[in-house]
Design brief:
Largest sheet: 6 strands, mixed
Number of helices: 16
Strand order of the largest sheet: 1-2-3-4-6-5
Strand content: 5-15%
Number of domains: 2
Structural class: alpha/beta
Order of helices and strands: HHEEEHEHHEEHHEEHHHHHHHHH
Radius of gyration: 22 Å
Shape: globular
Number of strands: 8
Amino acid sequence: MRLWGLVLSCGIWICLAGCQGAPVDNVGNLSAAEKLAVRLGKLPTVKKVESWQVPDYLSDEAVEGLKITTNHYQIFSTHRDPLIMSLVPPFLESAFKSYAKKLGRPVATDKKLLVYLFDNREQWEAFTRQWVPEQAEIYLKITAGAYYVNGACVVYRISRTADFSVLAHEGWHQFADELFRFRLPAWLDESVATNFEAFVRGNGKVSFEPRRNVSRLLALKKAIAERKLLSLSELLVLDAGRVVSHSPEVSSEGRASSFVATYYAQLYALGRFLQEENYGRWVLKFQKMLNEGQMGRWPLSEPDVAEAVQRLRNPSRVWNGRVGPLVFNYYISPSRREIETAYRSYCYRIAAQARLIKSR
């Protein structure tokens, strides 16, 4: 593969190294990747832009790649849309700050979180087959264009909105998996991740607003109308694998089954409930639960701690089914009957707002 960065002019090289406002000569003679590198090098959130020698297996033709370094991320990309790529670094940094706010304190780390962003699904699929060869067929069934595994978020372009929604969702999984000592049970992990899917941009900033998540609200509304709401006790022990295995196959249009949609919509609602309901009655408990998970202080047995700290394999369903309710009972409420009633009432209330939000 061609490594175009070897013959850069002095002015361009300075810009690629992260210097703001570096002079660039003969811009018209640059390739699309070189022009994009110059543009990205001027972003305040970008520390360095370098060439990335794209693996041969990604494409039969030569592909120019970029390696973009920010405060907390290292992004390898073949994406060429300058508008999207100019948004990616500040978006990721905004997301990182918002993830840390869930803990109520800054998170100091020298570790760079790894992101692969591909220009098309073909490259994404080829990379997936190499990145997770034994599980590739599972991940290739994903239709939303992103996943997190083996320390990396792997994304391909869908649209200018969906790209960032899935990136923020998977970005939380990465943040928690890489920077928490204890892994999170599924209900807690997904309840936070789904709360990062809706956002607004303004004045160069990104604001995550769970109340605007129309797709989850409509799925919740549908579940209520069909009387298919899962109980809180069910949500605390389920994981995505069990949900998929108990639901119909994904349709030819790629739409998730009703059961899967309900599961994620209810966890989205649970995340909001624990932070918003009754003037934030449970928000400090929720924050403490995340903090002590990040520091590895949950009151777990030795066998459960051993599984909570290991990252070489996915957590077992037995572990998830045991630790999920335990953590909820310890930090939120040991009496689930009262909170179940309040939670269901909350689901009904926010689902009724779906049409109003959609019309805005």
